[in-house]
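input
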Amino acid sequence: MSDGDEQAEEDVDSDIQSTSRQYLSVHSSSLPYLLKVGELGSIRQAAEALNIASSAINRKILKIERELGVSLFTRTVKGMTPTTSGALLLEHARSTLSDYQRTVDEIINRKGNIRGRVNITGISSFIEHVLPNKIIQFCETYPEISMKIVDENPGRIIDETMAGNFDIAITFVDGRHHGLELCAKIDAPLGAVMRSDHPLAGRESLTLTDCAGYSTFLFSDRLIIEALAESEFRRTGATFKPRILTNSMAVMNSGVISGLGIGFFTPIGFLDDIRDGRIVHVPLLGNELLPNGIGLYAAKGITSSQPGRAVVDFLMKEFAIIEKKLGELRLK
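output
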């Protein structure tokens, strides 16, 4: 190789190393600052939350913007809104920090202590009626595992999990969950839930049109039922006149048990009341959009980490218990 060729190769290597060093500054301490500004939409609020000076965060953002040659946020009097480039970088930051924390936890776990954070989201019936009675036992068994548990709108659960905001999702099975691992499933059909003395309580099955002539309860986040009703009512001409519209599972339960109307759920949130004969769950039929049970989904890589595996195993046992209870109700 000639001296000229060697010099050219050195120049290329130097350029690559320079570029690598330039973009490495995006990592390490800058990522939490970016995420906090993206979350709160304000440098001042982010600074207060992180207990550092606003000017320090602003300098880091400006430095990254100079290096990348793009604006990361649109600055207005109302705050900071991520640009398209900013949203892409925030997604990278969120994924990077999550992967780093998971790796650190895994290293510690190999020393014998299972430690880490697992984020769970799911439908109200499971989050509000199953987990509260069980989660204390899990926390006592795994004192070093922390959890974030969020009751989410069914229409957003999968999207939020696929975006990396949650590790585990508990939601309806309807064939839209590519990219997530189905770890367990409960055969819990969506149905009309009503008091046992309701005029429709003796039916083997119902359609939404059958229910539309009676007082109903609907969730304000009602994407599942709304989609089903829109499809069916277009054909039948029926319409709901909900007596109560709420996002509270407790309000829904109280209203149904009091006989004020019909709700639309799986039987999971009413197992004890159905067993004791106070409530009846009648499956809905006649709609191709009906979900096929409740699934326990894990994001990619979660079950290979010890904390994730521990939480999934715990939830799988709860799924098995619920499936057994449902089987006993079917035999009655």
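quick obs: The longest strand covers residues 116-122.
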